[in-house]
């Protein structure tokens, strides 16, 4: 059976580096399941792989879209499985990497058969979002389904709208709706996680945000600001991404720059906390410590060899 090795972990933990090392070792390619790295205009703020990193192993789903493009998790599932079919004709092993939990889940388990969007519900929720802000939608979802609230990207209004709509239609929490069995996969998945104490995770996030600012995140966000202010931009979930939405408030004069940067760090840490909560519930992740040694990496390869030879 073909094998997908899925590298997971919190934001800023070093997943890209490990994925590239595994891809080079197994002479294979990498699929990204980081939903924000799909957008070509957001390279710095999403910590997309650098040109040097991209040259070391072939990557898929990096910068293939514009922030103006609509791309659903269902489309990603379809496109990823189609790509995997082609890659598995050439390789026995393929690497996947990313911290977007639901996107990983879509590939390795599949999505559930959920009802189509209800137009009346969507219109009502869109109105709430426009008049009371995304915070109101966050509050509503937290009341309706605290479990899903802990895991979802709460800055993505589309995800919030969809979850609340499904809850209203079915009378069940979104967590219940997505807990049913899905279509079995034709490949085996081995999940590898990178772990560290929470304090280390938070420290790495703070340092990474500083490096993003040094690398030009402010200019990258400024290039999106005009679009954000347009009629088209107001409905783009991509522009609600952490690292950009805070800087937009700086551009609008609501916050000073130092406070906006501190908010990027805070919201990135909050996302990492949700990732930690999600991954702790999973019992099929084999962990390696952050800052692993060559000996640790060799031990990981031995583990993977034992699993892929079964």
Automatic annotation (TrEMBL):
Catalysed reactions listed for this entry: adenosine(37) in tRNA + dimethylallyl diphosphate = N(6)-dimethylallyladenosine(37) in tRNA + diphosphate
EC numbers for this chain: 2.5.1.75
SUPFAM superfamilies: P-loop containing nucleoside triphosphate hydrolases
Region feature (Interaction with substrate tRNA): 34-37
Amino acids binding ATP: 9-16
UniProt keywords, alphabetically: ATP-binding, Magnesium, Nucleotide-binding, Transferase, tRNA processing
Residue(s) at site: Interaction with substrate tRNA: 100
GO MF annotation list: tRNA dimethylallyltransferase activity
Primary enzyme class: transferase
Residues engaged in binding substrate: 11-16
Cofactor(s) in the UniProt record: Mg(2+)
Highest taxon of the lineage: Bacteria
Subunit-structure text: Monomer.
Listed PANTHER family: TRNA DIMETHYLALLYLTRANSFERASE (PTHR11088:SF60)
Function recorded in the entry: Catalyzes the transfer of a dimethylallyl group onto the adenine at position 37 in tRNAs that read codons beginning with uridine, leading to the formation of N6-(dimethylallyl)adenosine (i(6)A).
UniProt record similarity statement: Belongs to the IPP transferase family.
Protein name: tRNA dimethylallyltransferase
Biological source species: Chryseobacterium edaphi
Lineage of the species this protein comes from: Bacteria, Pseudomonadati, Bacteroidota, Flavobacteriia, Flavobacteriales
């Amino acid at each position: 059976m073909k094998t997908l090795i899925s590298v997971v972990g919190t934001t800023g933990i070093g997943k890209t580096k490990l994925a590239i090392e595994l891809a080079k070792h197994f002479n294979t390619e990498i699929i990204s399941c980081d939903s924000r790295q799909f957008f070509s205009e957001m390279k710095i703020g999403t910590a997309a792989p650098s040109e040097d990193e991209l040259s070391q192993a072939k990557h898929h789903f990096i910068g293939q879209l514009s922030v103006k493009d609509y791309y659903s998790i269902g489309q990603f599932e379809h496109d990823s499985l189609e790509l995997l079919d082609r890659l598995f004709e050439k390789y026995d092993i393929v690497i996947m990497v990313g911290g977007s939990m639901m996107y990983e889940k879509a590939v390795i388990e599949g999505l559930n058969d959920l009802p189509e969007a209800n137009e009346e519900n969507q219109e009502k929720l869109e109105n709430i979002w426009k008049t009371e802000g995304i915070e109101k939608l966050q509050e509503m979802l937290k009341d309706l389904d605290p479990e899903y609230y802990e895991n979802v990207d709460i800055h993505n209004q589309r995800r919030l709208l969809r979850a609340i709509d499904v809850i209203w239609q079915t009378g069940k929490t979104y967590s219940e709706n997505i807990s049913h069995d899905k279509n079995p996969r034709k490949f085996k998945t081995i999940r590898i996680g990178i772990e560290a104490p929470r304090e280390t995770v938070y420290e790495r996030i703070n340092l990474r945000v500083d490096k993003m600012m040094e690398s030009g995140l402010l200019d990258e966000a400024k290039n999106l600001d005009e679009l954000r202010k347009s009629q088209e931009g107001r409905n783009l979930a991509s522009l609600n991404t952490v690292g950009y939405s805070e800087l937009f408030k700086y551009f609008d004069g609501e916050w000073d720059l130092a406070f906006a940067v501190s908010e990027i760090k805070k919201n990135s840490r909050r996302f990492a906390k949700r990732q930690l909560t999600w991954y702790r519930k999973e019992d099929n992740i084999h962990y390696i410590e952050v800052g692993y040694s060559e000996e640790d990496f060799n031990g990981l390869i031995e583990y993977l060899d034992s699993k892929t030879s079964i």
